[in-house]
Amino acid sequence: MRSQIEGSRAVAQTVARCRPEVICAYPISPQTHIVEALSELVKSGDPAPCEYINVESEFAAMSVAIGASAAGARSYTATASQGLLYMVEALYNAAGLGLPIVMTVANRAIGAPINIWNDHSDAMSQRDSGWIQLYAQSNQEAADLHVLAFRLAEELSTPVMVCMDGFVLTHAYEAVDVPTPEQVDAFLPPFKPRQVLDPADPVSIGAMVGPEAFLEVRYLAHDKHLRALEEIPRLGAELSAILGRPCGRLVEPYRVLGAETVVVALGSAFGTVQDTVDVLRAEEMPVGALAVSAFRPFPYDVVRTILENARRVVVLDRALAVGVGGIVSMDVRAALAGLDTLCYPVIAGLGGRPITRDSLRRLLADAVADRLEPLTFLDLDRAVVERYTATGS
Amino acid sequence: MFQIRVHGRGGQGVVTAAELLSVAAFNEGRHAQAFPSFGSERTGAPVVAFCRIDDRPIRLREPIVDPDALIVQDATLLRQLDVFAGLRPDGYVLLNSERSWDELGLADVAARRRPGRALIVPATRLALTHVGRPVPNAALLGGFAAMTGLVSLHAVEAAIRDRFTSGRFSSGRVADANVAAATEAFTLIAAELKESSRA
Fold first, then answer.
1. Is the ipTM of this complex over 0.90?
2. Which residue of B has its CA nearest to A349?
3. Could you tell me which CATH number the domain at B2-198 has?
């Protein structure tokens, strides 16, 4: 049943219906409402059995999730920004050990300067951590992706991050059809761990691996991600049939047929991009858009197939590789290798700067005239920059 | 699409006002989206929240810069920031105050609006009377329903009851009190509109 609900609450209710057995929580804006809502749900007795563990830090949150997952419990946590960075050492261990932990990242900028607002710097910093990364455009998608994430994680034995834009989605009220317990149960069977830490039947997990096999362990992790490129759409189709709405696509093209210029975006900005495309299409400007929903693994072949007929691609990067430029745009470029399609990276929406229709309109006007610089900073306030450089610092 | 911007101060239920309005619109079968201006909210600091209502699904996520309506929960903000920025020429303004536009030195604001589109309701007084706390949001939503007809009083009431039913609100007293405040504000604004249409 659709209800008008806060994004965080929709995600919490969905996660609860996935029957996690251990939830580790350490609060940080803008993730807090998710773990608060889950603590209420666990206290009310549904989900059960479920242990809600208040930990002393994000490092502990991921470490406890690792322990719980290795002991055979379906484990969940959520974080954002500095919190994600604080759990990094454990994050790589979760991936290396192949533990199917699911984590919500309520995407937020990284300091300094301290900034609580939304961009993708946090999740992008963990691009190569071995976690699958799925990006939600809306709260409906954020909720549904968690159901997919648990099954995907457990089938592949690999952890999955569901990324939802902090505040823009987590704190937004909109209609969400929270998957029912029956729908979730029809899709997500009980967790059957491949091996379990059990004193009655001892095994070692995470023993040292030397030069003779470390490369092979990494190769196997890579292979798992390549399989995820097939599993995500397969499981997505299965879940879509149960839920009666699309879910679990690697990418989502929008009006790309005949589009000379295609805007690529991740997450909640895609809605604003779609509205802008509609306006420009009505003005006979041949533009389209492509949402990348699965960023890790990156669906190179699918992206190439969709973009190969475009003359130019404008990639909205909501994180900056300082000294280099865009991060998603590097992958898009790699996907387009050997084609004549031009790729324009655009750093946009950092630290909560809104990506507006007006800004996108100006950006696309410059793009179709091939007036864009090799790297664009959308809505950069030159006056602020010049004031600072004038001080000689 | 109809876009509402709510201005107020931390502690006045600004974000809740936008959320309740979205629930009221949803209850009437519309598509609605509400979101705060994403600050670190502190009691007393200026806070902005947004609500969009449409007959079609809403994909747009940018802040509202050209609102169709403004709800101003605290008149002291009028001296501090340009709450009217971007308001559409035929837009609505609903202000919480005990004073008139003239007394506030804002006669021009009312004069620029179409009749019945710049109104004042003593929402804090209504909240103190009914709820016992200076939380003007429910009363303003009642007044907003009367002024715009965008949502019904019934839908606002349902949204308030839906919000204040569980946990520490389970007695229903807080819901009843807020509904009473909203209803009185609705009646006041409806009477004022009737009066001015007769004049």
1. yes
2. B62
3. 3.40.920.10
